[in-house]
Amino acid sequence: MYLLGYDIGSSSVKASLVDAQSGKRVASAFYPKVEMKIISVNAGWAEQEPEDWWKNLQQATSEVLKISGVQGKEVAAIGISYQMHGLVLVDKDQKILRPSIIWCDSRAVSYGAAAFKNLGEDWCLEHLLNSPGNFTASKLAWVKDNEPELFSKIDKIMLPGDYIAMKLTGICSTTVSGLSEGMFWDFRKGCIAGPLLKYYGFSNSIIPTINPTFSIQGEVTESAASLLGLKIGIPVSYRAGDQPNNALSLNVLNPGEVASTAGTSGVVYGVNGSPNFDPQSRVNSFAHVNHTAGVPNRNRNDSELVRIGVLLCINGTGILNSWLRSKVVPEMSYEEMNILASKSPIGAKGLSILPFGNGSERMLNNENRGCSMYGIQFNVHGQAEMLRAAQEGIVFSFAYGMEVMNGMGIETKLIRAGMANMFLSPIFRETLAGVTGATIELYDTDGSVGAARGAGIGAGIYKNVVEAFASLQKLSVVEPDIQNKEAYQTAYNRWKNLL
Description:
Radius of gyration: 22 Å
Helix content: 25-40%
Strand order of the largest sheet: 16-17-15-14-20-21-22
Low-confidence stretches: none
Oligomer: single chain
Number of helices: 17
Number of strands: 22
C-alpha cells in the first residue's frame, strides 16, 4: 500500500510515493526537467497556465510509477501541496477563464493597501491577522476592475492546489487554511470574512465547499484515473499550501516549533498557539494544517485547536543564486559555486548584497526595492566575494525577519529544514546558525513526501501524527559557531545598516 504526494511548485511538479507501512520514500519524479514558464506581460506580473500544472503532474505520475515499479492500483491515498496565494478562476463548466495570477505577482499591492485603510487596520489585523496585502483576494479585485467581462463568468475561485484536487476529483472545494492564505477567513468569527467580500464586491457563491485539511475531499474520477494510470476511487485526503505543508513534512505542528525552506523564495515558518499578528504585516499569519477552530464538517469529538502558522517570506532567495549562476559563473554547478564562495571569508571582505530582486517583499512593507550590491572594490572583490555575499545577504534577510517573529513570541532556537536547495550549501546553513544562534536540524524529506504522509493521516491509514512521522530521518545537525559569532554579527550589522 502506497501514498502518493504531489507538490505543485512554480518551477516544476513533483510526485513522490511513500510506503505506507515503513513510511519510507520509494521514489520521486518531477516534471518538467527545466523550469516551468512564468508569463510576465508587464513588470511585476507573474502568471502560469493551470493546465500546464495538470499536464506536468501527469508526466511526473507516469515517471514515478515507472521508476518505482508500483502499480497504480496499489496507491491508497493522495495528498497535495501547492504554491500559495495563486488565483485560479473557473466557470460553471470548470473551465479555466484566464492564466493563474501566482504568488510572486505584485499587481494587486495597491488594492490590498486601500482595503487595509478602508476596512480599518484594526479590523483587518484582528479578524484576518494580516493586511489584505497582495494576496489572493486583492488579485481577484484587480480582475474585477480590469477584466469585468471575464469576472462576470466566474463560478468558483480556487488556489492552485484546489484546482489540482478538482482535476482529480471533479469537485470544487477548498480548506480553511487555504482561505486564510487568500485573506478570505475571519479568525475572530471562525467563518468566511464577510466584510472583506462586501468591500471588494464579491459574492459568497464564488467560494468553493470548505473541507478539513485532513479528510476525504473527493475520489479520483474515471477520466483522471485513465490519464494518470491510477485506479478509480482513490481518496484525495489532504491538501495544504507549500509552507504549511513543509512544516508538516518536518513534523512542525505545535507552538514554538519552526521550519524553513530556501528554494526560489525562502521561508521561515513558526507555529503560534494564539491568533497573533504583526502590526505592520511584515510577516503573515495563516491557519496551520492542524488548526481546527471554526473548521466546518469536522469530527465533533476533535478539540478546538488554535494553530497559527507565522510565515516570513523572502522572494529573493534561491533565484538570486540561480541568477548569479546564469549571468556571472555560467560554467559552474551549484556545488562548485559553494566551493568558490567558501574561499572568501565571513563578511565577503566588506561586500554586501541586498537580495530583493524578485518582486515586492512583504517584509519590506510590500516595497519592490530590487537587488543591490554595496561596497564593491575592484581590486579586492571577485567572483568568490560576490557568491559569498549573495548567500550571506539571503541569510541576513532571514535573520531580519526572524527578529519580527521573535517580537511576536516565536523564539527561533531550533530550525528544522529539509536537506535541499540552499540548505545544501555549507555557507548558507552555517551562516544562518551563526547569525541567529539557532541550531539547525536537517531531514530527509520534502513537500511531496510531506503531502503523501498527510494523505495517510487524512485517509485514516495512520492513526495519528506520531505514527505518520515515526520514520522521519534526521540527517545532520548544525550548531552555531560560537568562535566566529562576532564576525557574523559584524557582517549582519553592516548589511542591516545598509537596508
